[in-house]
Amino acid sequence: MVSGAGGGGNDVQWCFSQVKGAIDDDVAEADIISTVEFNHSGELLATGDKGGRVVIFQQETENKSQPQCRSEYNVYSTFQSHEPEFDYLKSLEIEEKINKIRWLPQKNAAQFLLSTNDKTIKLWKISERDKRPEGYNLKEEDGRYRDATTITTLRVPVFRPMDLMVEASPRRVFANAHTYHINSISVNSDNETYLSADDLRINLWHLEITDRSFNIVDIKPANMEELTEVITAAEFHPHQCNTFVYSSSKGTIRLCDMRASALCDKHSKLFEEPEDPSNRSFFSEIISSISDVKFSHNGRYMMTRDYLSVKIWDLNMENRPVETYQVHEYLRSKLCSLYENDCIFDKFECCWNGNDSVVMTGSYNNFFRMLDRTQRRDVTLEASRESCKPRQVLKPRRVCAGGKRKKDEISVDSLDFNKKILHTAWHPQENIIAVATTNNLYIFQEKVN
Amino acid sequence: MAGAEGDDSLYPIAVLIDELRNEDVQLRLNSIKKLSTIALALGVERTRTELLPFLTDTIYDEDEVLLALAEQLGTFTVLVGGPEFVHCLLPPLESLATVEETVVRDKAVESLRKISQEHSPVDLEVHFVPLVKRLASGDWFTSRTSACGLFSVCYPRVSSTVKAEIRQHFRTLCSDDTPMVRRAAASKLGEFAKVLELDYVKSDIIPLFTALASDEQEDLEALVMPTLRQAAEDKSWRVRYMVADKFSELQKAVGPEITKNDLVPAFQNLLKDCEAEVRAAAANKVKVFCENLPEDSRETIIMTHILPCVKELVSDTNQHVKSALASVIMGLSTILGKDNTVEHLLPLFLVQLKDEVTHLELSPVSHLSVSLSLVVKDLSDCTTAETQLFIFQCPEVRLNIISNLDCVNEVIGIRQLSQSLLPAIVELAEDAKWRGVEFFDEKLNSLCMAWLIDHVFAIREAATCNLMKLVEKFGAEWAQNTIVPKVLGMANDSNYLHRMTTLFCINALSEVCGQEITTKHMLPVVLKMSTDQVANVRFNVARSLQKIGPFLPWLD
Description:
The complex is a heterodimer.
Chain A lengths: L13 E7 L12 E6 L5 E6 L3 E7 L13 E8 L4 E3 L4 E3 L5 E4 L7 E6 L4 E14 L23 E17 L9 E4 L5 E5 L3 E6 L2 E10 L12 E6 L6 E6 L4 E5 L11 E3 L12 H5 L3 E4 L5 E5 L3 E6 L8 E4 L8 H6 L9 E3 L5 E5 L4 E6 L4 E6 L15 E3 L8 E3 L11 E4 L5 E5 L4 E6 L3
Parallel strand pairs in A: 28-29
Antiparallel strand pairs in A: 1-32, 2-3, 3-4, 4-5, 6-7, 8-9, 9-10, 10-11, 12-13, 13-14, 14-15, 16-17, 17-18, 18-19, 20-21, 21-22, 22-23, 24-25, 25-26, 26-27, 30-31, 31-32
Chain B lengths: L6 H13 L5 H9 L1 H8 L1 H14 L5 H11 L16 H7 L5 H15 L4 H16 L4 H8 L2 H4 L5 H15 L4 H9 L1 H7 L2 H7 L13 H15 L4 H9 L1 H25 L4 H9 L1 H6 L6 H17 L4 H11 L1 H6 L1 H17 L1 H5 L1 H15 L8 H8 L2 H9 L1 H8 L1 H17 L14 H8 L4 H18 L1 H14 L6 H18 L1 H15 L5 H14 L8
Helix pairs in contact in B: 1-3, 2-5, 3-4, 4-6, 5-7, 6-7, 8-9, 8-11, 9-12, 15-17, 16-17, 16-18, 17-18, 17-20, 18-21, 23-25, 25-27, 26-29, 27-28, 29-30, 30-31, 31-32, 31-33, 32-33, 32-34, 33-34, 33-35, 34-35
Pfam families (chain B): HEAT, PPP2R1A-like_HEAT
Keywords (chain B): Repeat
Protein name (chain B): Phosphatase PP2A regulatory subunit A/Splicing factor 3B subunit 1-like HEAT repeat domain-containing protein
């Protein structure tokens, strides 16, 4: 384990490592990154985009002779995961945008991941090939046929080394199980099953069976006019294969135990913080909607992201979170304009570092926030082209909420709300983070002295 | 063999070999299926030195191809030169045993098990066991799960040192981090236990739950029972479901004593489980479980322990539970005997019949109706009039009984029928469901009367017809006392349709009632109606007269 994993957000100095994606300002819609995920070892980093493509980067093995040269992530494989489809029955287009990617724990030499768009989940196998067979009986290697009469002996092909080739092949397609848009997938710790969640239902799948899935949560009311709440995210517990949580648009999280009954409509635990009456406003319910929920690696806590804050919950305490961090409180007075430009509905994700001591989430103006739980400190950093020099240390950024703006601060009104960081990922063991701006992927690493 | 015969015989083999690399998966599959042909053509040495190395590296293929390959290799002993060289087949099978597709791994393990028998004890220790050890300590759980299936086949014939190593590996896999490996180990527990020496079974094997069907292994029962009890009360409903599902096998395995003492309470709990799926699974096993109870205590056990639970299940909220029960309840009647059936099972039946949901399931109802008609034959033995009445309050039961009125009549007799059934059956006439649906062979009088004045003409007509049959059946005297007065009474009804019905009835009845009744009672009524206000009635009077004419005594 690299030493950096123990450090907190502020002891660590983050520096630029790499940026992926087109440099120009003209953003092609298809290139907008929609999900980022490290695999279980951190060696591979996958991104999905709006055009339905998956790009996987691989960490180069460190060069021991040059410790300053931090390992870089280079393209390992690119493939088209989903294509746009048309639902003829409802006259609706099904977007090819990749909503989520989840890696399976490695089970043999190949790598496996699940990628999903709004309706269909696919299991992809990414394997390496470094040898190829040579030697035909009836033709030359270039394809020309030989004269059949010249064959006097039989020839068995032999494998010879070749340049490494990485192939991605779809192994399973899990389709037709969701009426509404899939927002989450989560692999069970039993490595055999996974769940997929849409606005109203959660289904349980077996990785080897594509024609059947079990519905384990159904919050669709008998009368759709009574609909008040939708599912926004869902995740399996990292160790307990029978436990999962799902969050809602009303700011609640439900923990369910699949052993208790076949249909988990009744939750085992309900996590909800009573509303602060002083903060009540027209937008209270909208901003309380949880956009992401993630268990900590040790399985004792879970983190939720709503529009303005990040909350850490102890699984044993349902009535309030144990920690609350403000992400961009200065936006509270701007909710009206954020509502008008729809930004209030942006779904920010959040993530834990390897030892659950620091959490990270994105904001606007290409800012992202590192919240150190042990040291109770936080920092705002920016993913920008200006700080793209190799190993350049990122400077903390400050937003001026009102009053006199100091030097180096940026005023709230100058924030660019089109530059949002919704997707971030943290290497499972090292202090390496991947931050996605609209169409670029930034990789930052801990500064090594 | 190789190449000696000339080009013609080589050509097809050459094609097959080349097609092992064809882009079309069907062609590759075809070649793999003909691998033995290729091997024969190459001869044993080239098969060993060239073909097998090539196959070992071809794991980049589609599942179907790999599956076919795994299967082929299991039959290749002769083609590589016999048992002396069978270990050459191990490398390709080893790599197939680590593939992510379960079906391919399973087939590879199956083939490995097959060829293990061809290995000499020395070869087992030199080649086979190292392979198993490599798989068992592999990085990926896929290879470790495959290893689980290979312990029992190599254990018997190796030396005791190696045996100890194998046992150690198996123990390690039973407590592997990955659940899939533990489960694979658990599923092979029984098989491995069979090849172990008894001492090691007691000392080494972890008591995981498995369905063992062998009586010899009494010691294993002692190991299994605590686990079974635990499983039946497991927190996870799926475990309890599996226990319920396998209950009859369990029963056979543990024998009558343990069944009485342990399984009956366990079964009761499963029937009362909080999860509907578990209750349904247990309900499906009720009949089989009861059938397999020891004969001497069977009836007692069922009456005291099982039946009370079953009674509760009949009013379960879950549809699947009730459906499961419907198909087994009557099966119990043969076990319980007539008295218990009528007293205990019949009411349950009826509750089910009444239930909306069970109605709609054709099979239970038709099954029930068949059994019910048989049961009804025993109704005369039934001591409680209440039960009789109760029975007839249910429409489906009435339907069945009416359809089987012959047998009911044999048993009960008309008087009893009319006396005890009358109050209940009048209800049936108002039951909207049965209008126009069925034509019955016989009718009871009030029943018929109701149908005679039904809104629907066809019903009235049918009722009339049935009336005729009734009279035929029960005789003119009966008709005179019961039916005729009622029919004639209708002649004074304010509804002209009812008056016309009287005429139609008279038309029908005159034939069977005989001259006397027709002349004395029916004719006057007909004549009276000849002055009816409604023309249609008068018209039908004329027709009636024509009809009944032949039955009137000719006046001189």
